[in-house]
Specification:
This is Family 43 glycosylhydrolase. Keywords: Carbohydrate metabolism, Glycosidase, Hydrolase, Polysaccharide degradation, Xylan degradation. By secondary structure, the protein is mainly beta. It is built from one helix and 19 strands.
Length: 321
């Protein structure tokens, strides 16, 4: 009887230790899950996305249009199929699926669908996008597509004459007076006003003076308190200048996101907070050809200059609804 009692105690002790270890393991796994969830960057994880073009339309949501990277891509020619996402809290994003694919563009090659931009005009939603005619970075055009709803699908309308050449990375910007400007270019930034149909230039293109010589690609324009901010990718990060005209000349101010390679960004103010959208290369086996969209808070100094941004895993928190 005494032997049985001792055996029972040993078994009970073993089971208690095992249960304790199992519980500790579960708690540790739960802790890891909580840590992972608290790291909100990148915000899109189920597919690779890049070049986020963020916008506030008239439905109170944040809309984001992205290019589509492939998992094991070795160059950008495989990029295909723009996607639309929306959110009301900046953390949880609804994927509305593919809104335009190269197969829907009769004048273009397969793939080669690079960084898009978007605008709401004439009671419709427009995507302006760079796309290759024959399958080369040297024969890109600025295509235009339209939809009645922000989630698409979008229908191609052709390209803008006078905007062609190497990869373009267009940015479309509407000023307070309703005039619309297109920014584009590689190594030499260009700007021109667009006609209201968004399919024609209203003037000859101008070269942008921005106070430096480090422009590479990814022109972006936004306006705050009457000041125009021209920003771009210098190849090794994002930089910017400020002016009192959409044409410039811009006073060079230095880095906005200078430590992030291939910075291709957009900027919005949503519910009183400014946000900076960009993409990562280094998430779960990513590369410069397989990227993921991320978001950071953006802050201005009293003189209107922008505080330097650092990429974080934490990203942004839920907007208080």
């Amino acid at each position: 009887m005494k032997l049985k009692f001792l055996l029972f105690c040993l078994i009970a002790t073993f089971m208690g230790c095992k249960n304790s270890k199992d519980q500790s393991k579960k708690e540790e796994e739960t802790k890891e899950d909580v840590v992972e969830v608290s790291k909100n960057n990148p915000v899109i994880r189920h597919i690779r996305t890049a070049d986020p073009s963020a916008h506030i339309w008239n439905d109170g949501k944040v809309w984001m249009y992205t290019s589509r990277d492939m998992e094991y891509a070795t160059f950008y020619d495989s990029m295909d199929g723009y996607r639309a996402f929306s959110s009301i809290d900046m953390v949880n994003w609804t994927d509305h699926g593919e809104v335009l694919h190269s197969k829907d563009i009769p004048w273009g090659a397969s793939g080669w669908m690079w960084a898009p931009t978007a605008i709401y005009k004439n009671n419709k939603y427009y995507l302006l996008y760079p796309h290759s005619v024959k399958g080369s970075k040297d024969d890109m055009r600025c295509g235009v597509a339209v939809s009645d709803v922000p989630e698409g699908p979008f229908k191609d309308l052709g390209w803008i004459e006078g905007v062609e050449g190497q990869w373009l990375d267009p940015c479309v910007f509407e000023d307070d007076d309703g005039k619309v400007y297109l920014y584009w270019g590689v190594r030499e930034p260009k700007v021109a006003r667009l006609k209201d149909n968004l399919l024609e230039l209203a003037e000859a293109p101008r070269t942008i003076e921005y106070g430096s010589d480090n422009f590479f690609e990814a022109s972006y324009m936004h306006k705050r308190n009457g000041v125009y901010y021209f920003s771009y990718n210098a190849g090794l990060g994002g930089f910017y200048g400020m002016a009192d005209s959409p044409y410039g000349p811009f006073e060079y101010k230095g880095g906005i996101n200078p430590k992030q390679r291939q910075d291709h960004h957009s900027i919005i103010n949503y519910k009183g907070q400014d946000y900076f959208f960009y993409h990562w290369q280094n998430w779960k086996g990513g590369s410069k050809f397989s990227r993921n969209t991320a978001i950071e808070y953006l802050y201005y100094n009293e003189d209107g200059t922008i505080q330097e941004i650092n990429a974080t895993q934490e990203g942004v928190k839920n907007v208080q609804l």
